Amino acid sequence: LPVDNLPISERVKNFYMDSGIQKLYPPQSKAVLAGLLEGKNVLISIPTASGKTLLAELAMLQSLEQGGKCLYVVPLRALASEKFRRFSEFRELGFRSGISTGDLDERDENLGTNDIIVATSEKVDSLIRNETHWLSQISVVVLDEVHLLDSKDRGPTLEIVITKLRRLNPKIQIIALSATIQNSKEVADWMKAECVVSDWRPTKLYEGVYYDGVFEGEVIHTREKVTREIELVGKGKEAGVSLAADAIRNGGQCLVFTNSRKNAAGFAKKAGPVIQSYLTVEEQAELMDLSYEITDRSDTDAAKVLAICIRMGVAFHHAGLSSDQRELVEKSFLAGKIKLISSTPTLAAGLNLPARRVIIAAWRRYDSNEGMQMIPVMEYKQMAGRAGRPHLDPYGESVLIATKEEDIDKLKEMYIEAEPEAVESKLGAENALRTHVLSTISNGFAYTRNQLLDFFKGTFFAYQRGLLSTIALKTVIDTCLDFLIESEMCVEDKGDNSKGTESDDSVETSPFVTADKINSTKEKDDYPLYTTKIGSLVSKLYLDPLSASVILDNIEKAENEKMKLTDISLLHLICMTTDMKLLYMKSGDYLPVTEFAAENCDHIISMPPVKNSAEFEWFLGELKTAILLYRWISEVPENEISKEFDVGEGDIRQFSETASWIANAGARLLKMSGSPYAGLFSDMEIRLQYGASIQLLPLVKIRGIGRVRARKLYSAGFKSKEAFKPADFTTVAGLIGPKIAKQLYDEIGIDTSGYVVKETRKRTPRGDDFD
Ligand code: ADP
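A: This is the predicted complex of the input protein with adenosine-5'-diphosphate.
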């Protein structure tokens, strides 16, 4: 279909035609014919880069022209930024875009002034819980990467969000975008959507296997074949490095998927010296500048290794990197400066980073429960699908590496010819449902057990499991409710006046959604249910109710026992909550962590008996994580924490951010329950956020002053905002650099124009080789 013939406004047509898009790709035409522009629900299950985003855009713009409002739901924050940047281009058409990256416990009414809002599914769920009013005005919701319904962590929330949005506005148009999956029809039927499936791609993709110096690839549907002899190069004459060198020598870029962070970095180190030999002098100079951007911002060992790799035109990418580092690597790869990224599979699911050749260096992965496992077909397809940059590469190639001859046929059968797995709902577990049961009552989507069941019958879980799911769901919902009632987050009004009723001060009711209210009844499953003030707060804070009860119960215990709470008490309590991710115990950890437990036993609120091994083992994992956080708030340098715990900067950030969020939630819960410990949690929240001691809080709260600079200033006698006098500017500039000093003085409102201090950029010395 030519864009010119589409039933859309002239200005939207011109917007696309001016950007060089003249006609729709075949699967795009299919989606339009299926009713995409007429407000129909559509599920689009087509390969990466075949233009899913464009379809979502067309549907959104169509609705915006008619006065609608759109919500674009993504799984990852990084993806939210990518989409937001793109949609900001619609400003030309008079439409505003907004991105919601804030904390999970806020109502964000201002965001609703935008026409398109981009947010993660957790954020949307939290906006619903906080009763953000513009949500009921949403006319189109786009669900990006909807196959993640299958994910244990993300799927349940995504299902609930879809179910709630449909309840808020039954006329909402759903556009679901998915990688190719086996049961797309089933997912579409659940959403009452037309299903558009295709394996068409804009760039030819050869999928194949490398073995013993030869890559044999094939375009699946046309059976067109290619054979390439690969010259073995580099120190170890390794297959992966040689395949990468071959692509880059011929003007392409390479993505390499490995199965661990260590292997990702290891591959980059091995490939670096070979790739460097293909770089021009100009390229090397540019890369040198990039590498300084890394070492200027971080002095960890990992940052040094990354910087050295980048000088050679290669990089590694995984969740251990800081977000700055990841962004720099992605941007430089897209700009063609970095020629190769070796990464863990996380990259495949995320960003739009195509390359001419994709090398799947490892198709087995270690799983702590099941040992070495082959990666799922879905994951393979997502990796392979990254091969070939549309309009830039003549073709794409994805290469599986076989080390034994018999693996060649196996890999072809198990991956290249195979269909991706079906998407399966993970909502049925108590751990997934507990929080959603609470929020469903809190927001007024249901007021009785029967209404709860009705609500959950709208989920994909119920649709997929059919009749049987009703029994399963009922059991799990009842278990969740028992817990919520027991922990005083919910109240069930049995009409005997034994528990609170709606008029009771402790009970919150919500006007947000209106399930039919039941007043009094004798039927057990029709007894009215309410959330208490605490329950409603827990829902809004987005905390797992189990986490909330762990905090409240333990603090009550501490209060009763008149315990003196230390930093370790608080940090360990935070690590006991289910919302906190924990470090694993390694064999060398048992002695030091157990010793630490013994030294601090008076301050640990809840310590299991040593002889109960499973529980004690779990406790040690909590304590180990608490020790990491303790190092962080005690201003131990990141490099030392990295080495002690074998984690990356990105991990330290993740641990501290999550812990800080839980500390904030704890403070608010304790404040509501009138506990004197609330203040301790508020201080801890900020200390965790900045990684600093309590003394430094006045300084780290100043923008641009991190914990390292704050410590330098503090030691030199500058202990708060008030301490900075105009005459000290030169001293301060000497301590933290003139640029930041200027920013600090501006922030405080002191004019420094009379002082001139020249910026001299400190360059790190050239790194040595890796060994
Ligand atoms: P997906 O979301 O399926 O991975 P995108 O929507 O990001 O793919 O599309 C990939 C690229 O193809 C984008 O750069 C987009 O501008 C371009 N594109 C999409 N549709 C067309 C089209 N019909 N004609 C030309 N280019 C297109």
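The longest strand covers residues 205-211. Residues 89 and 95 are 9 Å apart (CA to CA).
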